[in-house]
Write a structure and sequence with these properties.
Length: 124
């Protein structure tokens, strides 16, 4: 079992900044990809940003390029999302996602986990 706990959401004015954090815990052997998704009311969940284990590959949604930055601390099994120049259309529940391998070297299995979500509200 791998659990994800997000923090850092809140209410901010347009043009402001927020930093989201997501810490993974549990029976972790390795985490390959960590990412952030968001879901606005009445819309489908969409990928915001994702990063591979060594940071060698990072993907951003076109709508956040140049404003958001994803990073991770592998020692802490934590991924961050720095959000700058926030817009009202960034308002959504933000979810952390992690994909990797759980268990031990001799007994491993793939996992994919979601956090509980954190609300980000940008007022115009």
């Amino acid at each position: 079992q791998v659990q994800l706990v997000e923090s850092g959401g809140g209410l901010v004015q347009a043009g402001g900044s927020l930093r989201l954090s997501c810490a993974a815990s549990g029976s972790i052997f390795s985490i390959n990809v960590m990412g952030w998704y968001r879901q606005a009311p009445g819309k489908q969940r969409e990928l915001v940003a994702a990063i591979t284990s060594n940071g060698g590959r990072i993907n951003y949604a076109d709508s956040v390029k140049g404003r958001f930055t994803i990073s991770r601390d592998n020692a802490k099994n934590t991924v961050y999302l720095q959000m700058n120049s926030l817009k009202s259309e960034d308002t959504a529940v933000y979810y952390c996602n992690a994909q990797g391998v759980s268990g031990s070297y001799y007994l491993r299995s793939d996992f994919g986990s979601w956090g509980q979500g954190t609300q980000v509200t940008v007022s115009s």
